[in-house]
Amino acid sequence: MAAKRTTPVYLERGSRRTFACAVEWPGWCRVARGDDAALQALADYAPRYAPVVQRAGLVLAPLTVADLDVVETVAGTATTDFGAPDVASQADMRPLDARSSTRIVALLDAAWDELDDVAAHSPAALRKGPRGGGRDRDAMVAHVVNAERSYARKLGVYLTAAEWRDGGVVVMRERVRTALGRPSKGGPPVGRGWPPRYVARRMAWHVLDHAWEMEDRRS
To answer: In whole angstroms, how far apart are CA 74 and each of 4, 19, 21, 51, 68?
Structure first.
């Protein structure tokens, strides 16, 4: 009898690229050309994601691609093909109880801590890509924060110009924690918003994608 697959995953399938995202693990989401390659990339990144899980006080058991169980597939967009996840899954629409909300906030916090740690140990100038491109350290961190301002609005989190000037990212992230920490029925909390689980997933993915890029380009 074949071993039971233990890690639920959904696929976001674009015309050229596919994202594989672990349903219960915000931030653990990788892209490649085709379903099989995306699943393999997700499995390959498990050792890099495990320290983030540990920061959150959780445990990710060692696994291989054979442990990944595709439970849902969603149609991607041009953004998917560009290289960013863009579609909430049905799994992201599930109700969010107190235990689940605490868990996703802990994992998002751990992703922020991971980026802070990588940035603290990286030079200001990062190695350029094969075509000479790529942001340097401070520009990359600023890019992550600016993206989060947009993502936060999908939860109904806004800062005035004065609040941003006086508190900035600290205030924004605290409000995001508060919004994600509220149990909910799972749907978007505001008009044209995103489900809280998806906000956590998208934010954590973006943070870790750049943390890992910075780590790869600092030497």
So the answer is: 23, 10, 11, 29, 17
- Tracing tokens 């899980």 back to the chain, one arrives at 53
End-to-end CA distance of the chain: 46
| CA nearest to 96, candidates 201, 7, 203, 171 | 201
Residue corresponding to tokens 């916090």 = 109
Q: How far apart, in Å, are the Cα atoms of 127 and each of 83, 85, 208?
A: 21, 26, 18
Sorted by where each begins, the domain ranges of the chain are: 7-87, 91-217
Longest dimension (CA), the chain: 62
Helix (H) or strand (E) segment spanning residue 8? strand 7-13
pLDDT category, 1, cuts 50, 70, 90?
very low
Question: pTM for the complete prediction?
Answer: 0.95
CB atoms inside a 10 Å sphere around CB 21 = 28
Concatenating the DSSP letter of every residue in 152-207 gives: HHTTT----HHHHHHTHHHHHHHHHHHHHTS-B-SS-SSTT---HHHHHHHHHHHH
- The answer to whether 203 touches 151, Cβ cutoff 8 Å, is yes
Cα–Cα distance for residue pair 107/54, rounded to 1 Å? 9
Of 212, 84, 206, nearest in space to 145 by CA: 206
Task: DSSP for 73-105, please give it.
Answer: EEE--HHHHHTS-----GGGGS-B-HHHHHHHH
Residue 151 has pLDDT above 80, yes or no: yes
